[in-house]
Design a protein that fits this description.
With 538 residues, the protein is of the alpha+beta class. 34% of the residues lie in helices and 21% in strands. It has three domains: 168 residues, no CATH class; 167 residues, Oxidoreductase, molybdopterin-binding domain (Sulfite Oxidase, Chain A, domain 2), CATH 3.90.420.10; 107 residues, Immunoglobulin-like (Sandwich). It is built from eleven helices and 19 strands. A five-stranded mixed sheet has the order 2-1-10-5-6. Strands 3, 4, 7, 8 and 9 form a five-stranded antiparallel sheet that branches. It starts with a helix and ends with a strand. The chain binds the ligand Nc1nc2c(c(=O)[nH]1)N[C@H]1C(S)=C(S)[C@@H](COP(=O)(O)O)O[C@H]1N2 and molybdenum atom (MO). Ligand MTE binds next to loops. This is Oxidoreductase.
Length: 538
């Protein structure tokens, strides 16, 4: 058993310990990672002149240098533990590991505000390191056969596993005889174990970093205080919400807001690292930090978002009060070139979206939004910054986690969904939906309230009509709206005789156009047709 092999055992155990500790720290608190805690403690206790020197010499990477130093010391220590196992036996090695753990725990608990759970990363790490050491000790170190009798053992003929033909034993390198008694240590088992340990440690470290980053972004969001709007939205008119049970509330609570995106894992964008680059066919490209963005005058707007893949009567529509910087303000600063007609926006996870430039510049409340219903954007809805453009389906307007806007032309660039068969431009079609009664519901015969929402963003909803069975289209009562960019609640009463009934709804937009009866599927530019449902009066 060469010294390097013993050191490798120790190093592997140390790596596994740190990987496990890193994952646990990512879940519990990144500051409870023992390496970070020891590094912090070292910085705290080191004399002033040493600190000054470190800052002068390493600049802003001084923390990284200290951390690297701790890792080097730990590596030496881990190698030492491995050699201790070789010379004195496993219990001594385990004791060595425990000693490192104790140091780590001490550092973790000298941090202000440390709580009992902060011990977990170190304890789990030591446990995992100890197990790894024991495992490697059994698989690799303890495979050492008793020296003088080894040849006798392999002389036995007819081994059931067919390995280690006794006659050729001596000619074959030890590494090819895994599993058989060997006149040394089992190198293959050790190397395999070490490789497995390194992989485990790497996975643990990455998981810890991801989980920790996750928590850091959540913390940044939770402590973010958004400035007030310079142009506040008009307070919601009293009659915007008819407050009918079962009817979608005028303002969709963030927790209930539909979510549509291609993100398998929700991007966690740290506002401290976030920038928005606006470039392309412009005179003066800019790159805006989150702090810069919040220093600009903020506007507020009530806007209803809709997804192009919403079926008639479907759920992918929601209304919120957004707070943000007007996209037009930023675009005027960068001075788009004549001939540019599209904004190609890109999210932190690489999704792209093409928005007509003139729509954004025509005076409507197109926002780089930071707030949704009085709080920072929820992570799933684009924290820290997303686009909101009234009147356009989300796939051509509502880029979440937006980080880049390129001023370009529709004939030069293609966005994510456009290259997958959806229309390049996506103005929202006028639509209406019956919320109450629910489809298939049984209601008491007699007077029944029928209610729902209708939308035709930026044109506004001017009328809603309802038809029961083969009857006349009757005008529904409309709720008040703050402007043309939100949906509009409506309701009507109907007298229903016992039996089955068919209810249909249609809306007319602010330009006087009634939504067409012809049905169309969502592809390529949005569903159309009346929302029709069956109920029973009893
Ligand atoms: N980054 C990113 N932004 C995106 C999408 C996406 O897949 N990725 N989907 C868009 C689509 S299709 C819609 S309908 C809206 C939905 O916004 P919401 O999830 O906040 O309701 O986001 C848009 N923004
Ligand atoms: Mo969408």
């Amino acid at each position: 058993m060469p010294a390097w092999a013993a050191a490798l055992c120790g190093l592997t155990a140390g790596a596994v310990a740190l990987g496990v500790a890193a994952t646990a720290a990512g879940l519990v608190d990144p500051a409870a990672f023992p390496v970070a805690a020891v590094g912090n403690t070292l910085v705290d206790v080191s004399p002033g002149p040493l600190k000054d020197w470190a800052i002068r010499t390493f600049g802003s990477s001084d923390k990284a240098v200290v951390t690297a130093g701790v890792f080097v010391l730990l590596a030496l220590g881990a190698a030492g533990v491995g050699r201790l196992v070789r010379r004195r036996g496993l219990p001594y090695g385990l004791a060595g590991l425990a000693a490192f753990g104790a140091l780590g725990l001490a550092a973790v608990f000298t941090r202000p505000g440390a709580s009992a759970v902060d011990a977990l990363p170190t304890l789990l790490g030591v446990l995992a390191g100890g197990l790894t050491l024991a495992l490697l000790d059994r698989r690799a170190l303890a495979a050492v056969a008793p020296m003088p009798s080894a040849p006798t053992a392999s002389d036995e003929p007819g081994r059931p596993d067919g390995l280690g033909e006794p006659d050729h034993e001596g000619e074959r390198p030890a590494v090819m005889r895994a599993g058989g008694p060997a006149p040394g240590f089992d190198r293959r088992a050790l190397l395999g174990g070490a490789a497995g340990g390194v992989v485990l440690a790497g996975v643990g470290g990455v998981a810890g970093a991801l989980l920790g980053g996750h928590r850091a972004v959540d913390a940044a969001r939770n402590t973010l205080a958004l400035p007030r709007a310079v142009r506040p939205a008009t307070p919601l008119p009293g009659g915007a919400d008819l407050r009918i049970p079962g009817l979608s509330p005028f303002v969709t609570p963030n927790a209930d807001f539909y979510r549509v995106d291609t993100a398998f894992v929700v991007p966690r964008v740290d506002p401290r690292d976030w920038t928005l680059r606006v470039h392309g066919m412009v005179d003066r490209p800019v790159e805006i930090s989150f702090t810069d963005l919040l220093r600009r005058p903020l506007a507020e707007a009530d806007v209803t978002l809709t997804c192009v893949s919403n079926e008639v009567g479907g759920p992918y529509v929601g209304n919120a009060r957004w707070l943000g910087v007007r996209m037009a303000d930023v675009l005027r600063e960068v001075r788009p070139h004549a001939g540019a007609d599209m904004l190609l926006s890109t999210s932190a996870d690489g999704w792209t979206c093409g928005t007509p430039l003139e729509v954004v510049l025509d005076g409507r409340d197109a926002l780089f939004a930071v707030g949704m219903n009085g709080e920072p954007l929820p992570t799933e809805h684009g924290f820290p910054v997303r686009q909101v453009v009234p009147g356009l389906y989300g796939y051509v307007s509502a880029t979440k986690w937006v980080v880049d806007v390129k001023v370009t032309r529709f004939d030069r660039d293609t966005a994510y969904w456009t290259s997958r068969g959806w229309a390049a431009e996506g103005p929202i079609k006028t639509q209406s939906r019956i919320d109450v009664p629910a489809a298939g519901a049984a209601v008491p015969a007699g007077r029944t309230v029928i209610a729902g929402v209708a939308w035709a963003q930026h044109r506004g909803v001017a009328g809603v009509e309802v038809r029961v069975d083969r009857g006349e289209w009757r005008a529904a009562r409309l709720a008040v709206t703050p402007g043309p960019d939100t949906w509009r609640q409506w309701s009507i009463e109907a007298d229903l005789r016992p039996g089955g009934h068919t209810i249909a709804v249609r809306a007319t937009d602010g330009t006087g156009r009634t939504q067409p009866a012809e049905t169309a599927p969502p592809v390529p530019d949005g569903a159309s047709g009346y929302h029709v449902l069956e109920i029973t009066a009893t």
